[in-house]
Design goal:
Blueprint: E1 2-8, E2 11-18, H1 20-25, H2 35-38, E3 43-47, H3 52-62, E4 66-70, E5 81-86, H4 87-98
Parallel strand pairs: 3-4
Antiparallel strand pairs: 1-2, 4-5
Length: 104
């Protein structure tokens, strides 16, 4: 899966998960939908300096599917995006951190 931030000018409209394997089979398909219409809009914003514990808490409180990480404080613009954090990223990180302690 790849993730794309969908923008309109400099305004962030949402995030889209792209299954790259599926995308190859749909290259010629035209649905009439725009990326903005299918983008995930239940995201929250964090800043590069934020503590991960607080970011995960905010994701949970807002029932957000992802976090857009911004380089700047305030309302982020497209050019401020430093990256994304998804629930899958958090789960993978937790899994990696406990694997040395898991029973074989």
């Amino acid at each position: 899966m790849r993730h794309v931030v969908i923008t309109q000018g400099q305004a962030i409209e949402g995030v889209l998960r792209v299954n790259t394997a599926l995308r190859h089979g749909l290259e010629g398909a035209y649905t009439g939908l725009t990326l903005g219409e299918v983008a995930i809009t239940n995201f929250t914003v964090a800043h590069q300096e934020d503590v991960m514990f607080n970011v995960i808490g905010e994701m949970s409180r807002r029932n957000a599917a992802m976090v857009i990480v911004s380089r700047t404080l305030g309302l982020p613009r497209a050019s401020d995006v430093a990256g994304l954090i998804t629930k899958e990223h958090v789960a993978d990180s937790v899994s990696e951190s406990i694997s040395p302690y898991a029973a074989d």
